[in-house]
Amino acid sequence: MERDIHSFLAVLASKAPTPGGGGAAALCAAAGIALGNMVGNLTLGKKKYAEVEEGIKALNERAEALRADFLALIDADAEAFAPLSRAYGIPKDDPARAEVMEAALLAAAGPPLEIMRKCAEALSLTAEYAAKGSALAVSDAGCAAALLRAAAEAAALNVFINTKSMTDRRTADRLNLEAHSLAAHCGLAAGEIYDGVYGRLADG
To answer: Which residue among 141, 143, 144, 186 sits deepest, i.e. has the most Cβ atoms within 10 Å of its Cβ?
Structure first.
C-alpha cells in the first residue's frame, strides 16, 4: 500500500476491479486502529497516567503492528481478486473452469476473513485504550470502535459474496460460520466501547 489516499480513492471510485470493498474495509480498519494508537500516544508522558504507561506502550506496539497488517491486507485483497477476475473470463464450456473458479473463490475469501480477525484483535486493544487512555482523547477511542465495526461488517460482505458462488458447500459453510461469528463479536465489542464513550461524553 504505497499510493497516497487521493490516488487510492480515485481508483476506488473508478471501474477498476481493485481496490474494492475488501481494500476499503482494510483501509477503514487501519484508520480505526491508528486512532486507538493516537489515544495511547496522547496518554504517554502524562503524570496522571503514569501507572498505566508501560501498558499503553505495549498496546501501542501491538496497534502499530496491526496497522501495518491492515495496510498489507489492502494489497492482499487486490492480489487475491486478480485470479478470480481472470476465472470469470474463462468460457463456461471450458471443463477446467469450475475447478479454477472454485480455487479462486476460496482464495478471494481469505483476505476479508483475515481483516475480520484483525478487527476483533484491534477492538480488544481499543477497549483498553478507552478504559486506560487519556480522558481528553476518549472520543477518538469511540471513533476507533465505530470504524473497526464498519470495517468488520464490510469485510463480512466480501466473504459472503465469494462463498455464495462456491460449490464446496462444506467449506463455504465453515467460512460463513466464522465470518458470522466474527461479525457478531466485533459488533458487540464495538458497541460496548462506543456506548461507553458516548455515555461519558453525553453525560457532560
So the answer is: 144
CATH number of this structure's domain 5-202:
1.20.120.680
Question: For position 204, what pLDDT does the model report?
Answer: 61
DSSP 92: T
What ranges in 47-168 are assigned the alpha helix state H?
53-88, 97-132, 138-163
CB atoms under 10 Å from CB of 40, counted, come to 28
Q: What is the mean pLDDT of each run of 10 residues along the chain (204 residues)?
A: 83 93 98 98 96 97 98 97 90 91 97 98 98 97 98 98 97 98 98 97 79
Say how many C-beta atoms besides its own lie within 10 A of residue 77's C-beta.
Answer: 26
C-alpha cell at 177: 460460520
Q: What angle do CA 65, 117, 181 make, to 5 degrees?
A: 160
Local structure of residue 98 (DSSP, 8 states): H
* Inter-axis angle of helices 97-132 and 138-163, nearest 10: 170
Instruction: Say if residues 136 and 201 touch (Cβ distance below 8 Å).
Output: no
